[in-house]
Amino acid sequence: MKHFIERPRFTCALGGAIATVTALPRAVHILHAPPGCAGNTAWTQMGGCGLQVGGYCGGISIPGTNVQEREVVFGGSDRLQEQIQNTLKVMDADLYVVLTSCVTEIIGDDVDSVIAPFQNDETKIISAETGGFKGNSYLGYEIVLESILRNYVTRGETTVKGRVNLWGIAPSFDVFWRGNLEGLRQLLSRLGLEVNTFFTVDDHLDGIRQASSAQINIVVSDVFGWQAAKISQEVHGIPYVVSPLPIGPSASDLFLRRVGEALGLSAELIEEVITTENQRYYKLLEPLTDCYNDMDLQRYAAVVGDSNYATAITAFLENDFGWLPQVIVITDTLMEEQQERIVNRLSSLKSGRIPKIIFKGDSTDIAKSIKEHWEGSQTQYGKYVNALSPAFVVGSSLDRPLAQELGAAHLSISFPVSNRAVIDRGYTGYQGGLRLIEDLISAIIVNR
Amino acid sequence: MSYFLQKEPPRREQRLNACIASGGTLSDMTNRKMRCCVPDGERTFTQNNICLLLPALGMMNSIPNSVVLMHGAVGCGSSSHGGNVGVRAGNNHRWGVIKDGTWLSTALNESDVICGGEEKLEAAIREIDEHYKPMIIFVVAGCVPGIIGDDVDGVAQRIQSEVSANILPVHCEGFKTKIWATAYDAVYHAIGRVMLQDTSENLALEKPKKATVNLMNVSSMGRVDEVELERLLHALGLEVNIFPVFSKPEKMYAMTHANLSISTCPTHDDYLLKHLQEKYGIPFVLKHMPIGIGNTSEWLRNVAAFFHLEDQVEKIIAEEEAELETALQEFKAFFKGKKVFVSAGEFRALATAILLAELGFEVVAVRSFHHDEFADSEYEKLSKITATDFPLNIANCQPFEEANLIRRVKPDLFLGHMNGNSTAAKLGIATNVIYNVGLQFVGYQGAYQLARRLYRQLTNPGFNQNISKWAQLPYSEDWYQQDPFAHIKQSEGEV
Fold first, then answer.
1. Does B382 share its domain with B278?
2. Stretch B279-294: mean pLDDT, rounded?
3. A313 with A338, same domain?
4. 3-state secondary structure chain A
5. Confidence of residue B492 (pLDDT cuts 50, 70, 90)
6. Which residue of B has its CA nearest to A137?
7. Domain contains A240
8. Span B201-225, average pLDDT
9. How many independent structural domains does chain B possess?
10. Is A158 within the bounds of a domain?
């Protein structure tokens, strides 16, 4: 086993937590951290998140204790106390979230006892232990959700029929998170559901506070958001249903059926929505038929991404778009059981074909493995070469050199996305499949 | 004892008495200088910002044939995703090849925090040496090893003889200093200790035949700016050796052969230039920053004086200034009387404010990231050219103070550091970024290009104006009623 990670395609738990709190409506963080953690996150977003930095309170606007050697030696609780007191005066928020860092966790400051005296009906202040050494940015998302569910969401709310919470998409580190959440809200609203997505511009804190009134929680990931769902079940008694990130018609059909089943909705309603949505999707796609065929736009594909995207994009390319995904590289750090789930997912494509599945996070190794597979997959008889060509690399902006070497077109979707500007574009649902087709084909014909 | 004999460089708070918290006016600063700041002074409310790791990465990630190994939690150094944009462009502008930087992390986890990370670090260095075969491995100590007591220097020393790469330990523990300019010292320290040794390869390096200068760039200038300064130095007949960004490791020692080292920003370079003088007898110029018309001329004069090229330089300066002055005419009437607010690293903020005054703007406020003695002369220059008094704020960003000040001074234009313009932008002010290495700032050409950008931005500041109608800054209405410097701790007994 190697003892380092090359160009990690995520940041630490604190970075993920910072982005998650920034995405909450009218929330402000208080970092109990040395100077640098917020700026590091801002520069990470600037370079990897489709040009989206911060939000209402993000980047270097985030309040923090900026602990130094004095606090390391004598403890940082007094400084935190002073900082909270003044943050409440200077900053304008309806929820304050204290986030801890490597330094303040190692020195062992007791944050909860510092924040307790500040909590009252007027002031909502919670904390989360997000030391960077605990794990990656996806974990940071999970830890913030956990704290919200345990400490902010009211208990004992009456269940409201048709109300659901949706998790599994981490703000910023899913670069298309806004559009992806919105796409799923739109889709589920076709079933008459009221969807609490927590992090979009249309969410609000009152809704989040009442998240315990949901009928079920929906997790659109094989990895992320599970912890939140388990905690919500434990604390609020809400069951959950899991689906892969649904991109395009096939995955959306399955997603709607699964959610419908979990909520006990009529199968007839579900099928009616599915039919209408497919009709719409294919009507919109129809005019591409001439060029798709005449320009020979089918491709062999290498897909590189986090566990959400790698599986969802592969399924879309194979099941919906008629492409040939060959190698799938999953770039986030996973436990064995999580890896098994991903393998199962990728082994159940409609065609029955099983692509090569690799779990790797280092760009140099990723490129090497994919090139090896590519070279090993071609046969040659004299001047006749049956190569994996034409090819496409769907990955991050770090995979551009690989695409160049393969002579393949390239699209950045998974973090880091340095070469695209993203506002509310999303790939989820039926509509998202069309967006993805637009982006893939546009990348192929960029010099047309 | 030379600082370079120690494992790590001192904090700038200690070495230079640098400080980060002061609120007053330009005349306070001009008259009282260092007494304006309480050493190690602070605020009762602060916002988080960057630490020294970020500018240090800007230097390290640029070095060809090197890798940067972060020894810390997995997030430390993820800012490289942002910095990589500059590495790609920098490689392209210099060699016509787009190439990413290579940064790595030991990704310390909970068990490393408990058991120590030295073994992991040692194994990682060996693997990286074999896998990437770089000439340099920068081993960067983040906060975690600093607290759990990993001896990064000890590991480097222990295994150096067993690996091919040069191991350069760089100390970037964010909790150890509030002055991120300490980053320059940290990287220079490592390069000075390891790469400037009198090895046989280094001693075999060919010596320059013509008068040569070291032109220092710690990544605050892009290639376009280097080209402008090279143009001016070549006009004096000087060869130019740019250091340290994008400099090839095998050629680093060449800087010990120069006749003179020239700083482009005194905040950046004093640590190394003093070392080069002490150890190799290379004199240096650490005065003025070649941003702005007068400052570029002064900077050039200082260099020329060293080589006794006074007559030659006056001729160059006269021609350059005359041509620039003519070209600027079409903007000056438009700029006249428009109010401008500047915020950046101390020297850069002051030099830029002086340039803006030269262009006809009325400077209404200046913020500097920190304060040390090098900038005293610039406060005097600024005072002289503006001939008015206005708010002057020493702050390591702290946009809450900035928001409050902007509401009071109501500028037409704001110039802030990268990631530091959004506060002004959301208040509807036209902005221009200071410190974006793709844009030109330096020398006579930089002054002209900045003027062109400002003309463009002031002609239609619609983006920011529209955002400001709908976006809100995260500060309470009550805060805007307070003194902008209310949270700066005052020292006892000071008047």
1. no
2. 96
3. yes
4. CCCCEECCCCCEHHHHHHHHHHHCCCEEEEEECCCCHHHHHHHHHHHHECCCCCCCCCHHHCEECCCCHHHHHHCCHHHHHHHHHHHHHHECCCEEEEEECHHHHHCCCCHHHHHHHHCCCCCCEEEECCCHHHCEHHHHHHHHHHHHHHHCCCCCCCCCCCEEEEECCCECCECCHHHHHHHHHHHHHCCCCEEECCCCCCCCHHHHHCHHHCCEEEECCCCCCHHHHHHHHHHHCCCEEECCCCEHHHHHHHHHHHHHHHHCCCHHHHHHHHHHHHHHHHHHHHHHHHHHHHCCCCCEEEEEECHHHHHHHHHHHHHHCCCEEEEEEECCCCCHHHHHHHHHHHCCCCCCCCCEEEECCCHHHHHHHHHHHHHHCCEEECCEEECCCCEEEEECHHHHHHHHHHCCEEEECCCCECCCCCCCCCCCHHHHHHHHHHHHHHHHCCCC
5. low
6. B75
7. yes
8. 95
9. 3
10. no
Nearest to B449 by CA among B366, B353, B286, B331: B331
Q: What is the model's pLDDT at position B37?
A: 73
Based on the fold, state whether residues B248 and B286 are members of the same structural domain.
yes
Pair (B65, B103) in one structural domain: yes
**Would you call B174 an interface residue with chain A, using a CB distance cutoff of 8 Å?**
yes
Interval A380-424: pLDDT, tens: 999 999 999 999 999 999 999 999 999 999 999 999 999 999 999
Residues 41-100, chain B: which have Cβ within 8 Å of A?
44-54, 69, 72-85, 100
Candidates B11, B43, B44, B47: best to mutate against A (most CBs of A within 10 A) is B47
Mean pLDDT within A159-182: 98
What is the share, in percent, of chain B residues with pLDDT greater than 90? 91
pLDDT band at B493 (very low <50, low <70, confident <90, very high): very low
Same-domain pairing of B140 and B238: no
Same domain, A351 and A393: yes
Residue A363 with chain B: CB contacts under 8 Å: 100
Q: Is the dihedral of CA A271, A276, A277, A283 positive or negative?
A: positive
pLDDT above 80 (res B494): no
In a domain, A436, yes or no: no
DSSP B360: T
Least CB–CB distance from B83: residue in A43, A93, A401: A43
- Residue B39 has a pLDDT of 67
Give the model's confidence band at B31: pLDDT under 50 very low, under 70 low, under 90 confident, else very high.
Answer: confident
- Residues A39, B48: C-beta atoms closer than 8 Å: yes
The whole-number pLDDT of residue B179 equals 92
Regarding whether B180 and B92 lie in a shared domain, the answer is yes
- Together in a domain, A17 and A125: yes
B50 with B159, same domain? yes
Does position B495 have pLDDT exceeding 50, yes or no? no
Which residue segment(s) compose the domain that A213 sits in?
A: 163-282
DSSP B12: H
Q: Which residue of A has its CA nearest to B71?
A: A4
A104-135 pLDDT, tens digit each? 999 999 999 999 999 998 899 999 999 999 99
The pair phi, psi for residue A64, each rounded to 5°, is -165, 160
pLDDT at A361 over 70: yes
From chain B, the residues in CB contact with A103 under 8 A are: 143-144, 147, 174-175
**CATH code at B253?**
3.40.50.1980
In a domain, B35, yes or no: no
Summarize pLDDT for B149-174 with one digit per residue, the tens: 999 999 999 999 999 999 999 999 99
pLDDT greater at residue B41 or residue B146: B146
Same domain, A125 and A236: no
Tokens linked to B422: 């959004």
Single out the residue in B263, B280, B310 at which a domain terminates: B310
The answer on B172 and B239 residing in a single domain is no
Which residue range forms the structural domain that includes residue B210? 203-310
**Stretch (H or E) spanning B415:** strand B413-417
